[in-house]
TrEMBL record:
Protein name stated in the entry: DUF502 domain-containing protein
Lineage of the organism: Bacteria, Pseudomonadati, Pseudomonadota, Gammaproteobacteria, Alteromonadales
InterPro entries according to UniProt: COV1-like (IPR007462)
Key words, A-Z: Membrane, Transmembrane, Transmembrane helix
Organism from which the protein derives: Shewanella litoralis
Transmembrane spans: 12-29, 49-74
Length: 193
């Protein structure tokens, strides 16, 4: 009985939580859109009209940001707001996370690697960039150093370490499968591809 309940929970929980999360996001954005419609005196005709308005506004914003003058003005405003330390920290973090999600068309630089530890064990890591930032490269001893992320289990956090490229063992394993392996401490049934 205990195994059956656990199996049911393990299968249903991810689906139910995912649906709930996306439904909550839909309802929130629909409510925001309805509020915007009410501000201009338009009544919402159907459920989802507010969501459609918000999605349309985001699409139009994407089109506008492809126009140089608007992108320049936005960049100038962004630069002015970045002068405030608290805003810079919060906004910078959110912008970095958003840019990680929007990497379409860019080559994926994350490569899965193994790094040997002092005790002979290995840690799964990810090359996040092909070179260390210049200030770090200048401070490090000679060598080809690369930033490697060691993801912590069950967290969206990790440790970035600078490792010599010669000390890395490259693994033919997709970033997504290896990340799933790290995030679940190897519990997830990931198959190497």
């Amino acid at each position: 009985m205990k195994k059956t309940l656990a199996r049911g929970l393990m299968n249903l929980l991810p689906m139910v939580l995912s649906i709930w999360l996306f439904w909550s996001l839909f309802i929130s954005l629909d409510g925001l859109g309805k509020l915007l419609l009410e501000l201009v005196g338009v009544q919402s005709v159907f459920v989802g009209a507010g969501f459609g308005l918000v999605a349309s506004l985001v699409f139009v914003a994407g089109l506008l940001f492809s126009v140089s003058p608007i992108a320049w003005v936005y960049g100038w405003i962004e630069k002015q707001l970045m002068k405030f330390p608290l805003f810079k920290s919060v906004y910078g973090s959110i912008r970095d996370i958003a840019s990680l999600m929007n990497r379409d068309g860019e080559p994926k630089t994350q490569k899965t690697v193994l790094v040997k530890q002092a005790n002979g064990s290995y840690v799964v890591g990810f090359i996040m960039s092909e070179s260390a930032p210049q200030p770090l490269a200048d401070a490090l001893p000679d060598g080809d150093w690369v930033p490697v992320l060691f993801q912590l289990s069950y967290q969206m956090a990790g440790v970035t370490s600078l490792v010599k490229r010669d000390d890395l063992i490259f693994v033919d394993w997709s970033f997504e499968d290896a990340m799933r392996f790290n995030l679940t401490a190897g519990i997830a049934n990931s198959k190497a591809q």
